[in-house]
Input
Amino acid sequence: MSGTLSSLLLHCFVSRCRTTQQQCHRCHQSHQYFCGRHALKTRLLELGYEFGDKELGDIFWRFKAVAERKKNLTDVDLIALISDEIFQPKIIWSLGDLQVTCGTLGLSTATVRLIDAGGEDHVACSVGTGPVDSAYNAVDLIVKEQVTLLEYGLNAVTEGIDAIATTRVLIRGNKSHTSTNAMTGETVHRTFSGTGAGMDIVVSSVRAYINALNKMLGFNDQTNPKVTAGSS
Output
């Protein structure tokens, strides 16, 4: 198969389906969905990835959204989307919507909608020195966890103006778990990394930040379990 994967979703693979041309004409959208999903599953298997129906569905809709904006998707793009969509920590917070305003006329502003583990929406707006900083500040207003951003890195996984960007961040909670180095006696603070991918660098950056926050919050829940009534 060629390096371009967008055709999996933009064309009807009749040779891979048992649907006739007449049925395809009557149910074009449904047929494209099943053909594209099947072709994507086949390509994932060729790359060594095998997922269940739910995970495959999540990857498919994420892939479809990107394919509608980017003409030439490659295997590298697909692997980046897999890493961002599937290989994630326990979801405590997830990104719902993000709107950023920036430029030379004033401070950058960002409005962020996050969804908690119970499905409830939380919205906050903040300003910052740039679009990423303002978005991170808005996330902080919702999550209400004091953290320090230690590292921030951004890379394009492919060439071109429409390349998918991957972001990696490293954070440390200001009240995070600490340990002592047995050799030096130095106090070591636990850090958490996060990654995100997307065609929009601000969205990619926020995904990475939320990913790291989820790791930190999940770690805190494991190390500080809640005491239930009647526990001794």
